[in-house]
Amino acid sequence: MSEEAKQSSSILIWLTALAFLIGMAAIFIYVPTEQMEGAVQRIMYFHIPAAWLAFFSFFIVFICSILFLWKKEREWDIYALASAEIGVIFCSLVLITGPIWARPIWGAWWVWDARLTSTLILWLIYVSYLMLRYQTEAGSMRARFAAVLGIIGFLDIPFIHFSVLWWRTFHPPPKMISPEGLGAGMDTSMVATLMLSLGAFTLLYFVLMGQRIKVEKMKDEVEQLKKDHLYSN
Amino acid sequence: MDNLEYLFAANVFVWGGIFYYLFRIKKYQQSLQNDLNLIKEAIKKGSQSE
Amino acid sequence: MHTGALVIAMNRYLNQVRAIVWKDFITELKTRELFSSMFIFALLVIIIFIFSINLSIVKASEIGPGVMWVAFLFAGTIGLNRSFILEKENDCLQGLLLAPVDRTALYFGKLISNFSFLLIMEFLILPIFMIFFNIDLIPHLLPLIYVIFAGTLGFCTIGTLLSSLSANLKTRDIMLPILLYPLIIPIIIGSVRMTSQVIAGEPLSSMTNWLSLVLCFDVIYIAVSIMIIDFVLEE
C-alpha cells in the first residue's frame, strides 16, 4: 500500500469516528424523545441507516457483478464480495433492531409486515450468495457464478417488494420520503439527526469496504507468491 | 413511556455486530501479513542457498 | 433474400432446441426414473401435509392452494436438480457444449423439457389433489390452467438457469434449493394467492396485479437468462 493511500485511509477512519461521535451525541442528547413511542424510538436512527446501507451494498454488488462479467477483472469480483458481506451484516442488524423496536410498540417480536418480510427474503438471497462463494474454490468459475447470482438477486427485489406488499402490510407509511416532500411527517431536529446518522453509516461502509478489500488482496498476494516460488521447484 | 432496555439492547447488537466484524477483519489481516512475511523470508532463504 | 437467410437461421435454431428437448424426452421415456420420482414425491408431500394439518379445523379451500404449490415446488426441484446433473455424469455436458449449438438454444431446450415434465406431473397431481381435499376444480379449470402455466414457467426459467449453475458445484443437490427458493418467493406468493382466488370462483380479471407480476417475472428472467447463460456455461 502506498503512503498516500495509507494516509487517505486513516483520514477516512478518523472522519468516520468523528461522524459517529457527533451522530451519537445527536441521537442520545440533542434529539427530543418521541412522545408516542418513548425512548425506544431512538432505534430508528440505527434501523433506517442500516437498512439504507444494506440496500446500497446490494446495489453495489449488482453493479460490480455486471462490470465483472463485462470486463472479467478480478478487481470487480473483490468489490462484489466485500460489498455483499457488509450488506449481509447490516441486513442482519436491520432484522435484529426491527423486532427490538417492534416488541414494545406493536407488542410482538415479529410481525409479518411487508418491509420486515422483504428484508428477511433479501437477507436469505445474499446469505445464499455468500454460501455459494465460500463453498466454491477460488477461480474464474466462482467469480462468474457469483456475478450471475448478484445480478439475478438484485433484479428480484422489485418483485419481492410488490408481492410482499400486496401480501400484507402493517409498517407505518414511510415518514422520510412521503408525497408531501422529504421528511414531511417529522420534526426538523429528527430529520437532521437521521441525516447525520445516515452520513456516518455511509462513511462506515467505505471504511469497512477498504479493510475487506485489503484482506482479499493480501490473500491473492499470498496465493500468487506461493504459486510463483514455493510450488514450482 | 419507559422502554430504555430495548434501546439498550438494540445498541448492544448494533455496536457488537460492527465491532465484531471489524475485529475479525483485522485479525484476518494480521494472520495474512504473518503468512506474507513467512513466505517472503522463505523465498529469500531459497534464493540465498542457490 | 435477407429474410430468407433469417428464416433459415431461425429454423436451424429451432431445430437445435428441438433436438435437446427430444433427447431429454427419449432419455426419460427409456428410464422413467425422473418422472416417477417427481410424481411420487409430490404425492408424498400432499399426504404429509394432510397428516400435519387438521382438516376438520382448517378449511380445505384455504389451505389447499398452498399445499398444492409446495408439492409442485418440491417435486420441481427434484426435476431441476436432475436436469443438468444428468448431463454432468459421463461428461455429456462437455459434448453438448462442444456441439455447434448456441448456448441459449441449450438453455431453451432445457427450459422446455423441464417445464413440460413439471406441467405433465402437475396435471396428474391435480385430480388426486381434488379428491384428497374435496375441492371441485372442474368449473374453474381454465383459469386454473393459466395460473399453473404462468407460475410454473416462472419457477422453471430461474430454476433452469440456477440448475445449470449448481451442477458445477461440489454441493449441488443442497445448493440448488438454497439459491432458488428465496428468489422465487414472489412467484410462490403470487401463484398461491391466484390459485385460492380462482378456487373461490373469482375471474382472472380480478387479479390482474398478481397475473402481471408473475408474467413480468417470467419475461424478465427469460431475458436475463439469455443474456447471462453464456457466462454460466463457459469452459
Q: Name the average pLDDT of chain B.
A: 87
Estimate what percentage of residues of chain A fall within beta strands.
under 5%
Overall helicity of chain B: over 70%
> Helix count of chain A, per DSSP?
6
Whole-Å distance between the termini of chain B?
A: 77 Å
Cα-based radius of gyration of chain A, to the nearest Å: 20 Å
Structure description:
The complex is a heterotrimer of chains A (about 230), B (about 50) and C (about 240). Chain A has helices spanning about 5-30, 45-70, 75-105, 115-135, 140-165, 190-230, and strands at about 175-180, 180. Chain A is an all-alpha fold and about 230 residues long. Chain A has a two-stranded antiparallel ribbon with strand order 1-2. In chain A, α2 runs parallel beside α6, α3 (about 75-105) packs antiparallel against α4 and α3 packs antiparallel against α6 (about 190-230). The model of chain A is unreliable at about 175-185 (pLDDT under 50). Chain B has about 50 residues and is mainly alpha-helical. Helix content of chain B is about 90%, strand content about 0%. Chain B is rod-shaped and about 75 Å long. The mean pLDDT of chain B is about 85. With about 240 residues, chain C is mostly helical. Chain C is built from nine helices and no strands. At the A-B interface, α2, α3 and α6 of A face α1 of B.
Tell me the layout of helices and strands.
The complex is a heterotrimer of chains A (233), B (50) and C (235).
Chain A: H1 3-30, H2 44-71, H3 74-106, H4 114-135, H5 140-167, E1 177-178, E2 181-182, H6 188-230
Helix pairs in contact in A: 1-6, 2-3, 2-5, 2-6, 3-4, 3-6, 4-5
Chain B: H1 4-49
Chain C: H1 2-31, H2 33-52, H3 60-88, H4 92-98, H5 103-133, H6 141-166, H7 172-183, H8 185-199, H9 208-232
Concise overview:
The complex is a heterotrimer of chains A (233), B (50) and C (235). With 50 residues, chain B is mostly helical.
Label this structure with key terms.
heterotrimer; A: mainly alpha; two-stranded antiparallel sheet; 6 helices; globular; C: 235 residues; mainly alpha; 9 helices; 83% helix
